[in-house]
Design brief:
two-stranded parallel sheet; 4 helices; 27% strand
Amino acid sequence: MLWAWERPEDLRFLADAGRPARVAFLLATLALTETEVREQPRRYPLHVPPGMKLQATVRMEAQPRASLANYPPERLQALAERLATLANRPELTGLQLDFDARASEYDAYVALLQALRRRLPSTMTLSITGLASWCAPGSWLTRAPVDEVVPQLFRMGPDAATWRARFERGVPAPCRGSVGLALDEWQAVPSGVSTLYLFNPRPWTPEAFTRAVTGLTP
């Protein structure tokens, strides 16, 4: 799964890439303020092979002094409705939320995901990105009604080496199944991964995709 972030992306080469790949593209960024949610739709073109089904990623960013934990139930319901509306596109098979929830926001995030799950079609997958630390035993993720958690094993800060060593032994529950790697911080894919998300800090090209595939080959 290739992440197509906020920049022009031409991924039509995937039609002849010789290896199955899908696309998760940034659909919108939501800025969560103390009083409102400001939406910034995708600004740049995205080209994919004809007929390709897509997964939409919505980035949520809590602004200074704002916290999802301070959203009353009615605001969480309204936010869930807004996300479901964004995902109401025929080419989408899944919706992914990218939100770096703080510990104080875990309960509110779970409530938001529960409200969102009720509003999405049963055929649409619900995915979230996550921090590596969320995959520790007893994680709050066990309460999240999602089909997939994608721990991002890059841009992890000073504890990066510790978490990479843990994931080298396999993806810990409840994050088992998917991980996200970056081309500029490459590491071995943990065992037990069924879906690998790839982030490229630069626009995707056939050459970049080939390098990534080569890195996956034992």
